[in-house]
TrEMBL record:
GO terms for molecular function: oxidoreductase activity, acting on NAD(P)H. Residues 311-399 form the Reductase C-terminal domain. It comes from the Bacteria. The lineage of its organism: Bacteria, Pseudomonadati, Pseudomonadota, Alphaproteobacteria, Hyphomicrobiales. PANTHER family: APOPTOSIS-INDUCING FACTOR 1, RIESKE DOMAIN-CONTAINING PROTEIN-RELATED. Residues 2-292 form the FAD/NAD(P)-binding domain. One of its GO terms (cellular component) is cytoplasm. This is FAD-dependent oxidoreductase. Keywords: FAD, Flavoprotein, Oxidoreductase. The keyword Cytoplasm does not apply.
Length: 401
């Protein structure tokens, strides 16, 4: 078993292969110098903690030695030869495989405007080092992109006494993943703390310490950060003629168009039996873990399809955003107000099936309902909309129905 990429998904897959009974060799080849580590803290505690940030190694990677899993770090794979079932590394090494897993993740999307090279990005532990020096008291951080990473960066900058200006080319924040009401609340939280926004305008050009917008405005700051999304790392798959479309395409069992090659995590665009025929690519820690665990199992045992409900979160200040399932498949949206700060939306498909849920506010208030929502989505439940809306009625009762 060979795995390309040494992130969260790879670590879970390798451990799952052993858990499924595989006793042969497992080799993970990753270009970073660290053992697989958790990326979510990079935009949060790794920036705000006073101490120097340490790599937080994934739980499964701590078991590599005990499980007899070989991890080749600092090693970039440059080619897959499907005919001879071998991969080739930049150092000239050749490694043969019986089954191969692509867990190559994603890279921060660069800003393709004049001076785009001045903008810093955040994907790796090393990127945090570059950013930290600009996140102190009195600094002004210019963030291009009002998505989750951009907003978390703005919150972290703010917590350290800096001010952030977010430039977003859509009319509002988070158009892709949440209701306008949640986006407005998030924006308000930032504004109250002194962060600023520019909407519906693009960046024309960048200099080391300023951005010029397409409306002619020039904003000065200490650093420019590009937070304009991530692109799946599909180059190896494309070169090997494996099917790719916004990620490495897989069926619900996480098999690619080559029966001996699998894909999972941020690089994979996978079918999911709960959410129709269209394959979906998710950038989520939990999805990377769930898909890793499933694919590791499927590479050893008779395969079973994805069933875990996709889920992600974002922490900003003392609030959390959580999204489960596929809200974009919803035809009807039902609001459930949990308290003055915390709101939950349910997304029902045309036939009344619960396909998604999104909540924003205090974790302690929303956590239970979001857990139940995931279970209802997994069960393809068709809950009564009035029941969902009534915050005094316990969602758990719907599980028994
Ligand atoms: C700053 C940040 C904050 C985040 N916060 C959250 C959050 O709050 N909540 C949430 O749900 N998700 C969050 N995520 C997303 C989550 O971390 C990712 O979805 C998850 O890490 C994906 O894991 P992965 O293993 O698929 O890919 P990755 O973690 O990207 O790992 C892929 C690895 O493969 C390596 N690789 C690629 N190509 C090659 C090659 N040719 N040869 C060798 N190695 C190669 C890469 O260098 C990388 O180390 C965050 C991500 C970032 C970047």
């Amino acid at each position: 078993m060979v795995i390309i990429g040494a992130g969260e998904a790879a670590a879970c897959a390798a451990a799952a292969m052993r858990d499924a009974g595989w006793t042969g060799a497992i080799t993970i080849v990753g270009e970073e110098r660290h053992r697989p580590y958790e990326r979510p803290p990079l935009s949060k505690s790794a920036l705000t903690d006073e101490e120097q940030p340490e790599v937080r190694v994934s739980a499964e990677a701590l078991r590599f030695d005990a499980l007899g899993i070989v991890h080749k770090s600092d090693t970039r794979v440059v080619r897959i030869d499907r005919a001879s079932k071998q991969i080739h590394t930049l150092d000239g090494e050749t490694i043969g495989y019986d089954k191969l897993l692509l867990a190559t993740g994603a890279q921060a999307r660069p800003l393709l405007v004049g001076g785009g090279e001045y903008a810093l990005t955040l994907r790796s532990h090393e990127d945090v080092w570059a950013l930290r020096q600009f996140f102190g008291k009195g600094r002004h951080v210019l963030i291009v992109g009002g998505g989750l990473i951009g907003l978390e960066l703005a919150a972290s900058a703010n917590e350290l006494g800096a001010c952030a200006t977010i430039i977003e080319n859509r009319e509002r924040l988070l158009t892709r993943c949440v209701e306008a009401q949640i986006a407005e609340t998030i924006q308000k939280t930032h504004t109250q703390r002194g962060n600023r926004f520019r909407f519906a305008v693009d960046v024309e050009s960048i200099e080391r310490d300023s951005v010029t917008l397409t409306n002619g405005e020039r904003i000065e700051g200490d650093v420019v950060v590009a937070a304009v999304g991530a692109q799946p790392d599909v180059a190896l798959a494309e070169d090997a003629d494996i099917e790719v479309d916004n990620g490495i395409l897989t069926d619900a069992f996480l098999r690619t168009s080559d029966p001996d090659i699998f894909a999972c995590g941020d690089c994979a665009c996978a079918k999911h039996p709960l959410f129709g025929d269209r394959p979906r690519r998710m950038e989520s820690w939990q999805v990377a873990r769930d898909q890793g665990a499933l694919v590791g199992r499927n590479m050893v045992l008779p395969p079973v399809p994805q069933s875990a409900v996709p889920w992600f979160w974002s922490d900003q200040y003392d609030c959390q955003l959580q999204v489960a399932g596929m809200p974009d498949l919803g035809a009807t949206v039902v609001e459930r107000r949990l308290d003055s700060e915390t709101i939950l939306y349910f997304y029902l498909s045309k036939n009344g099936t619960l396909v998604g849920a999104a909540a924003y506010g205090y974790l302690r208030t929303l956590a239970k309902d979001m857990l139940v929502s995931q279970r209802l989505i997994a069960a393809s439940a068709k809950p009564d909309a009035a029941f969902l809306a009534a915050a005094d009625r316990r969602l758990k009762a719907l599980l028994a129905a």
